[in-house]
């Protein structure tokens, strides 16, 4: 029997990225990144329990440029995942499902996550 030439399902070569697809992928990625950040939080808490020397070492790691970039990324991921999760709760209630509302709420999620991250870091830096 000869192999049939079946049409292939459209994939990334056919579809261009859209706000909705990018946000869906990013929501999953931020969930994974938040899990990694939780492990970092556990390390920090264990360093407190380990005494002054282990706490100083953890603070050195988190206070370094790479540590601060990790914490900044983790905080943005937290706020993005939170805001997008609220957006999904509205969708679960069948609210905002038309395409105009989907794009408007998507842009609002990006804006809110950026503002909340800036506020959190601004507050953290002013209370030091």
Secondary-structure blueprint:
Blueprint: H1 19-49, H2 52-63, H3 65-92, H4 99-126
Helix pairs in contact: 1-2, 1-3, 2-3, 3-4
Q: Judging from the principal axes of the Cα atoms, what is the shape?
A: extended
Kindly provide the radius of gyration, computed on alpha-carbon positions and rounded to a whole number of angstroms. 21 Å
The ordered string of helix (H) and strand (E) elements is: HHHH
Termini gap: 75 Å
Oligomer designation: single chain
Give the tally of β-strands.
0
Q: How large a portion of the residues is in β-strands, by DSSP E?
A: under 5%
Figure out the total of helices.
4
Which regions contain 5 or more consecutive residues with pLDDT less than 50?
none
CATH class: Mainly Alpha
Features:
128 residues; single chain; extended
